[in-house]
Every structure is written in C-alpha cells, then in structure tokens.
Amino acid sequence: xxxxxxxxxxxxxxxxxxxxxxxxxxxxxxxxxxxxxxxxxxxxxxxxxxxxxxxxxxxxxxxxxxxxxxxxxxxxxxxxxxxxxxxxxxxxxxxxxxxxxxxxxxxxxxxxxxxxxxxxxxxxxxxxxxxxxxxxxxxxxxxxxxxxxxxxxxxxxxxxxxxxxxxxxxxxxxxxxxxxxxxxxxxxxxxxxxxxxxxxxxxxxxxxxxxxxxxxxxxxxxxxxxxxxxxxxxxxxxxxxxxxxxxxxxxxxxxxxxxxxxxxxxxxxxxxxxxxxxxxxxxxxxxxxxxxxxxxxxxxxxxx
Length: 304
What we know:
By secondary structure, the protein is mainly α. Helix content is about 50%, strand content about 0%.
C-alpha cells in the first residue's frame, strides 16, 4: 500500500495502530496500549452494561439493529483484531453462549428465532474472531447453519430449507459468510458459491430483496453497516477467492475506490453512538475506513 497513507494510519490512536500492525503488516503488536485506550475501555464498559450491553440481551432490550449496543460494539472490537481475553470480556462471552440450543442454534430475546441466522451470526462471527475460532460451540452453530442451507446455496429467515425456487436473503447470506470466511475449509467451498452469487447479483440487478436494496444508503461509506452496506459486503466477499475473481466484485470495489481522495476515505454517514471515533465523523478522512479498504485490497492481492 501507499507509504504516505500507511504512515498516516500509523499516526492514529492505539486501537487503529494495533489493527494496522496486526492485519496489514502481519506483525504481533501488544494489545496492552489498546486496552488502556479510553475509547476502547468505554466500549468494554458498555458491553458489560445491563441496559445496552451483553447482559441486556436476555431482557430483549437490545436488538441487532441498535447501533452502539451489544451486537455492533462486539463487532467493532472483533474487527480491530482484539480478543475477549485481552479485554476481560470472558464472562460476557459466556453469557452469549447461554442462548445456544442443543442443536447449535441460538435463540435470543426479543425475536431472534433459531433460524434467524442473520442476527445470531453477528455475535457468533465476532466471538470466532475474538478467540473462539475453534470452540466446539461455534462449530456446532456452523453445522446447524449448514444443515439449514437452501439448495441454491444461500439462507433465509423464513425457514425455506432445501428450496431453490426463491432467492435467499442478502442479510442472512452476508452474515453467515462473515463467519464462514474465517475458516480455510469454507473459503473455497463450492457449496457457498450460491450465497456469494446472491450478493454479487444483488449489486448488479439493483433489486429489493427481503427489504434490502442497493440504493443511496447502501452505496454510502458507513461503519458499522448495520442494515447492509457496500463496505461490509465487499469486506466479507473479499474473504472468498471465488468472489474476488468476479466482474461484479471488481465493479463494487471500483465504485468504493472511486470515493478516495489522496488514497483516503471519508465516512458519508455519522453515527452518534460512535462520535468519539473517526468513522462516525463526516468532515475529515477516516483512518478506520481507509484501513478497511486497504484490508480488502490486501486480500484481493493475495488472490491474484
């Protein structure tokens, strides 16, 4: 990547430098300074909070679309490459597993049913990144999800298992691929090509599926892309060589890169819940969004 941009990234806060060192430069940075960072410490406190954090999941007060609460706070920490053990969140992680059923699925209040993989996969994917990659409970969840796959390779939240005469749900496909893409055995699994094609075709066809579209909100750079957004879609797809090799992927990624100014990217949506982070500010370039695009670029280069 461009040295000037890299130097700019490394002038960011401790959590950003940690992510760059770990994921772009393949170093083994110390998580200590990140844990002591006031912004990260605040998110950890929020995750432990009984009203908005992981303990609140059992009350039904926290929904997966709530920005700045359990689902997306954990997602952000996982995206930065931090581990549960680094952050002292072991007890909170175990609270999530209490929602797991004997068959591996998760049922979380208020309305996350066992076949709502689009919701539960957000939490499980984060846990897998944060030290639970080889945990048997995560593997049980994956087995359950794979058994619920539609014959066209995707998933949906209505339980049409095995059916092929209807489209799968973009959010189900995206969030399960976000988890499965962490495993070598799934990155080149042909059985997932249908779900990948669904996301690529959705971009090309500009259709509305299950309430999800690819209009102005989807195309804007935002983090986290809670309701489905181009930056998260391209990030997930970049985990799969089959996707990276497609014309639709290149079209989507070229669209994102066209937004760069001097190799830097700016958030196009401000989220009050993350006001202390540059990805929630629209006036200046965001180191975090720039890091994310360069992470995708690194994956793409590895596939060539």
